[in-house]
Write a structure and sequence with these properties.
Number of helices: 5
Radius of gyration: 37 Å
Largest sheet: none
Oligomer: single chain
Strand content: under 5%
Number of domains: 2
Structural class: mainly alpha
Length: 105
Amino acid sequence: MARRKTTNPLATYWNSIPAYLRNRYFVTLLLFLVLMIFVDRHDVGTQFRLHSTVNRLEADLERYDRLTAEAEAEKLHMEMNRERFARENYYMQQDDEDVFIIVDK
């Protein structure tokens, strides 16, 4: 009985790849890189989103620090000039005076 030699199409394709690309260490490294870059829980896309979130939160922190400083300065100014603040914002007046509101256009 004569055996007919069967050729595996995958084997011919595998043998057409250069030897250094068929190296098991290269294939393992390539699979590891694909896993770490695209599949892992901490992949490149996730790291980019986290980095942009951190930058946005730091910008928000700076903005809130600035707003807090402005509010504290306004509070200090208001405490120094309570009477003026009450007259301008709440239209308070003494018994013997008239208040005229001038609006700039």
